[in-house]
Structures
1.
Amino acid sequence: MHNKTLAELSAGLQAKTWSSVELTQHFLDRIKRLDPNYNSFITVTEDVALAQAKAADARLAAGETHPLCGVPIAHKDIFCTQGVKTTCGSKMLDNFISPYDATVVANFQAAGAVMLGKTNMDEFAMGSSNETSFFGPVKNPWATGCVPGGSSGGSAAAVAARLAPGATATDTGGSIRQPAALCGLTGLKPTYGRVSRWGMIAFASSLDQAGPMTRTAEDAALMLNTMASFDAKDSTNIDREVPDYTASLNDSLAGLTLGVPKEYFGEGLNPGTQAAVEAAIKQYEALGATIKPISLPHSHLAVPAYYVIAPAECSANLSRFDGVRYGHRCENPADLADLYKRSRSEAFGEEVQRRILVGTYCLSAGYYDAYYRKAQKVRRLIKQDFVDAFKEVDLVIGPTSPSPAFAFGAKGADPIAMYLEDIYTIATNLAGLPGMSLPCGLVDGKPVGLQLIGNYFEEARMLNAAHQYQQVTDFHQQAPADIA
């Protein structure tokens, strides 16, 4: 069962080939047996999962037809889950049990989906390798000496190792697409505002967006159908009709124009990655798409602008974790200042502290105009590049990550080198555009990701293009060699 896609598992449930309890128990057994090799879960919710599976079986017996009813999935540990620990990968929230469900979680529960547990992640979603989690690093199932990417590396590893058929994830600068690329999966970051952020612990509020991580575009469409909704509790959520993202998956690509930005194929791109992406572009041409060279001239400014804006927002968002209202509290504080200082110093990891310091500095008196305001102006230029590009093309295509998965510790001593892992993904977050990654090859036995970037609210067009590519290639069907 674990080698079947989410869509195939759903069909089996509807056909009574297996029950949700059988399916859920199968994945729980795999997690118990195999996850010690990967550390992809922080919390496994066995009792909750089996109770939800039993309820789903009752709904299926009564004629429930929702495609996710009875299907087990995992949630990134950044989503609040009522009665279940939500840590965000941090010592700060090690003992936090949420009194409510995030809207994304509630949507899946309403559909009858089963929660297997909460997946590991970089602390407060800050990282590109999943090495900053308080609960230890996640290992890439394709090469356990290598990182799975971050910050949704736990969700990526769990799906790649066939411990869950799908998982939720979040993307602030590439945290869905980059781990999807490094683990050979299909990951989709929707348009900013398409999916509610309510109940999703904030990192950088103008950039964060939730999305699905699956093995196929069809599965991503099924999950996005449920995740996307209007939510009055999130003021940045868009009140816009949610289309059926599965409806156009089989549309022809004839007439589609794909833009290839020259800036995405320059220095720093791994030669093997470049060859795989170029082969994929040729495949799209064979499918009927027109390929057009384009330019995104401000791309080189995306990383520096992001690393001013994101830390600035994180310094504000994380100020609430002070040891008073909730979160870790130090022992025997001498006074209130000591309580704040030691609680935050003890509970935040090095990368989180670095970003809080950078962000606080950028927002401080005398430096706001020099850094934060200027970065916002650059952000506007980056957005305009895409606006101009989409006057000529339907989708932008290129690499997701500059190289395949790298070894643990390879970039730990150089934060700049680590930040450049997101060089091709960050611009879409700054512009608020949708983007996705899908497998397009292997380099040294490790997956390579192809990135598609769409215009605002054109997730269906991206999914259609990804699905058609997956109908004529088998990269999305390949699995790590040593998973049972």
2.
Amino acid sequence: MAESSIAVTRSRAKNSETDLGPRHAGGATRWWILALLVTAVALTLFPFLLAAMNAVKSPTDYGANGPLGLPRSFDLSALFTFWAGVDFGRKLFNSALISGVVAIVAVALSLLNAYAIGIGKIRGRNWILVLFLMGVMVPQESLVYPIYYLFKSVGLYDTKTSVIIVFAVLQSAFGTYLLSAVMTAFPREIIEAAQMDGANKFQVLWHVVMPVLRPTLMVLGTFFFIWTWNEFLLPLVLLISNDNQTVSVAMGTLRGQYTSDPTTSAAAALLGIVPTVLFFLVFQRSLMRGITVGAIK
């Protein structure tokens, strides 16, 4: 009996070791994944932390401790110098106006184009989608000279309208390509039921398609706003006057004017980052809801 009991105990211990093995292995894997995620987050946040640290340093503190040293003082003069030097309030308004209008117009154009291609089933839709895809893939550097001479000839050069037109068209190319794939798989039974109830094409779009696609449209609008806000090359070429420039252009031209003041450059980087972070935090819930709905579909 005693030997049998010992054998049973050893068997249970062996089974428990076998059971704990994968659990411990899974736990170790989870810790490794967590460590990698923490490292990725730290590397992502490091430039923001560096900009914040150097933006509140005095020039003397920066010269004594370098860019990686912790601030020994709390000096906001670099922030005020940059704000007043480039008229940052006006740049902020220009970026918000351009990015907001581009987001709204590009989403509207994308919706109408995709509705015609995906649900309207127009002829040659595959070739039309290829043209829209080329609008996404063509590098902006190749568009600089044609766009420059085009807006010069029509009198829109150095106006915010020119930048709005360019980016509304470019962003809507991507939006059309994305929404067309979604609308092609839209349930035809719902549309046919609405048409049998007497709804015309516009009513089908507004009362049937729009409510279903609203989370996706919110995601597109959020991305369009952030992408347009961060654009640099075309606004630099098209907006030469100080009154029309955007935040990214002001940050890019800063080095030539304040090249001997690294704390002001750090303040410019910090002030340029803050609006997009705030915008993302405000629309974070809509963004996550749209991505979740898209994943479920």
